[in-house]
Design a protein that fits this description.
The chain is of the alpha/beta class and 337 residues long. The protein is built from eleven helices and nine strands. The longest helix has 16 residues, at 98-113.
Amino acid sequence: MNPIPNELPSRHADRIGQEYTASINQKDKKERGQFFTPVEIASFMASLSDFKEKSVRILDPGSGIAILSCSLIEHLLQINPSLHSLELVCYETDLELLPFLHQSLKNLKEWLSNKGVIFNFTVHTEDFILHTASCLLDSHDLFLEPIAKFDIVISNPPYFKLSIDDPRVLAAKVIVNGHPNIYSIFMALSARLLKENGELIFITPRSYASGGYFKTFREFFFQLVELTHVHLFVSRRDTFSRDKVLQETVIIKGIRQHLMLENTVVTISSSAGLKGLDEPKIRTFPKKDILDLTTKEKILHLPTSDYEESVMDIFKTWSGTLSKYNIKISTGPVVAF
């Protein structure tokens, strides 16, 4: 599929992705946890980056057709005219998808060359988790090959649960509790692979924000990443409607920090879905009001309205157990996940 004259690489990648998606069935997509990012969301995620160095090293650990990488690079070029060189490292295990991915990246390289920007890319076909899991270990093993770190990690990782005896779960056992979802391991590894002050931008389900299965992950992740922006999609249907996905999704941006700042402000924006992304509702909170790492559960609170904020404030005034307030809970068949 040839690019249209004056077509941006992200738009070209999106057309390639739609052609590929039409060639496989819904069952295959679900088994792979593979749902390509709509170009509108990719552009929004890219716009969260503030990186302005002359050279940049980017990781896309679940690259698909590279729509996210293309959108990010277009944005970096727009905000930084002095950008000179780019290195992109992609991971993609779907061998049928590889020719499409290479076509997308070659078009991106040609587009950048015409603008005088040096661009090199590497596509790994190894499993991202198994290939990089050693970075989770605080080990000084001389036989472990050090992994070069990145300025920016951007990703729409696969979403599906893993069995507790899956090799990827065993490799990432330091951040796993119970039956994990694969996306949380992608997030943890990406946080470790960031340089100091590097940017992490992810779109995932919002399930990691609370619950026992993700508690160990939250402890690990938020000790490394300073949260700066969260975007919530109020509609469960609209975000990935092209692939008929029913999922509560959230975009986060964070900065890798050695020392966390006490006075950090977090922006929480929201939109119904793709509609409203250009004019989202925006609220700001001191980080301590939505994520208190001194608490036992370390829940990430994500209020998007006055009502939700008032409910959150009420609960913060409670100091006793539920029985103190004459409240009883009957869980019935409800389980944590």
